[in-house]
């Protein structure tokens, strides 16, 4: 908390405003929501009915155990948005861009990705792959892979914002090279807070995917594990208003 307060003191730009200003700004935001492109659909009809799509300064956190489909969901969100004309940056800390490309091609062609790895392709598969590759190549997506430094990721976000960046997908949070101190929860809260501020300044939706320990349910201890604290800290920040 002291760290957050000191950062705000240095900024020196925040001050209280009268409720009249709040109402005026709120009405402007409601009016703006009626314009095209103000809300980014997830591409999942039932989910969009529940949450109404995504706003461009939202921070969303998705946590799951290994092999539960976090990366597949990340790609689905990115591709669904890009197919609707939104500019997307995918930051993959662990998976290489070649493997991400293979997943995208598998999704588009409905060909099992295992056949790509084993070379068990049929003659009819090649035209489908070429057509899918051409279609995906036209989407407004950039991919940054194997980058763990948050400072470099922020630099790339600012660079892509010049192109009108709408969505950032970071897969995944627990592999980032973040500052570690005596109090892990405090440091993670600080880094997640920085990510939310970057998202708000760039007017982009930021998706954070993170790993959650598979043994969480089996534990009865009242003190959460480090992997739980990562999720809980980021999830709490994601619910805070911009």
Task: Describe this entry's structure for a reader.
With 242 residues, the protein is of the alpha/beta class. The protein has a single domain (40-238), classed as Rossmann fold. It has helices at 2-11, 19-32, 45-51, 70-82, 97-109, 113-118, 125-137, 150-161, 184-201, 226-238, and strands at residues 39-40, 54-55, 59-64, 87-92, 141-145, 165-171, 205-211. It has a 5-stranded parallel β-sheet, with helices on both faces. Strands 1-2 form a two-stranded antiparallel sheet. α9 (184-201) links the parallel β6 (165-171) and β7 (205-211). α5 (97-109) crosses α7. The two termini are 18 Å apart.
- What is the overall shape? globular
Which percent range fits the helix content?
40-55%
Which CATH top level class fits? Alpha Beta
Q: Please tally the β strands and state the result.
A: 7
Low-confidence stretches: 1-12, 182-186, 219-242
Proportion in β-strands: 5-15%
Helix tally?
A: 10
Largest sheet: 5 strands, parallel
What structural class do helix, strand and pairing data support?
Answer: alpha/beta
Tell me the number of structural domains: 1
How far apart the termini lie comes to 18 Å
Architecture, CATH level 2?
Answer: 3-Layer(aba) Sandwich
Mean pLDDT: 77
Order of helices and strands: HHEHEEHEHHHEHEHEH
CATH superfamily: P-loop containing nucleotide triphosphate hydrolases
């Amino acid at each position: 908390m002291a760290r957050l307060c000191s950062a705000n003191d240095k900024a020196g730009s925040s001050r209280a405003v009268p409720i009249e200003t709040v109402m005026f700004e709120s009405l402007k935001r409601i009016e703006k929501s009626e314009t095209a492109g103000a809300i980014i659909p997830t591409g999942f009809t039932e989910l969009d009915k529940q949450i109404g799509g995504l706003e461009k300064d939202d921070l969303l956190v998705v946590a799951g155990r290994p092999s539960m489909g976090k990366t597949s969901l990340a790609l689905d969100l990115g591709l669904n948005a890009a197919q609707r004309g939104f500019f997307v940056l995918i930051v993959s800390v662990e998976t290489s861009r070649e493997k991400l490309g293979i997943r995208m091609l598998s999704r588009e062609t409905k060909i099992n990705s295992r056949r790509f790895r084993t070379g068990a392709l049929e003659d009819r598969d090649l035209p489908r792959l070429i057509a899918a590759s051409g279609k995906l190549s036209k989407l407004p997506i950039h991919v940054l892979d194997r980058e763990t430094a948050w400072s470099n990721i922020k630099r790339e976000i600012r660079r892509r914002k010049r192109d009108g960046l709408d969505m950032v997908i970071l897969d995944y949070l627990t592999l980032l090279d973040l500052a570690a101190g005596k109090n892990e929860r405090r440091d993670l809260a600080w880094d997640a807070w920085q990510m939310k501020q970057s998202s708000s300044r760039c007017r982009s939706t930021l998706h954070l995917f993170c790993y959650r320990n598979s043994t969480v349910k089996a534990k009865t201890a009242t003190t959460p594990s480090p992997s739980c604290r990562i999720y809980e800290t980021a999830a709490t920040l994601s619910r805070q208003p911009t």
